[in-house]
Amino acid sequence: MAKIQIDLSREEDTIVEVYKLVHALNTKQEAIKKMIRYFEAEIKPKRLNNKDYFQV
């Protein structure tokens, strides 16, 4: 489990609030947890090149 603290702009906060209301959720945290399922993330190392990172 990871905890992430984010600062939402007024517009972003409104979007999360609307999503929460439309889906009958209790908290914005629940709304954000459901919203992130629609995105795909790719994680790459910053300070290692691909050769070193993927070497077995």
- The rounded distance between the terminal residues' Cα atoms is 28 Å
- SSE-based structural type: mainly alpha
Q: Count of DSSP helices?
A: 3
Q: What helical percentage do the residues reach?
A: 40-55%
Strand content: under 5%
- Mean pLDDT level: 86
Task: Give the topology string: H per helix, E per strand.
Answer: HHH
Number of strands: 0
Rg to the nearest angstrom? 17 Å
In this structure, how is the largest beta sheet organized? none
Low-confidence segments, given as residue ranges, are none
Oligomer: single chain
Broad shape: elongated
Structural features:
56 residues, mainly alpha
Question: Which secondary structure elements does this structure contain, and how are they paired or packed?
Answer:
Blueprint: H1 10-22, H2 28-35, H3 50-54
Helix pairs in contact: 1-2
Polypeptide structure, described:
The protein is elongated and about 45 Å long. With 56 residues, it is an all-alpha fold. The longest helix has 13 residues. The chain contains 3 helices and no strands. The protein has a domain of 31 residues. The mean pLDDT is 86.
How would you briefly describe this protein structure?
The protein is mainly α. The chain is built from 3 helices and no strands.
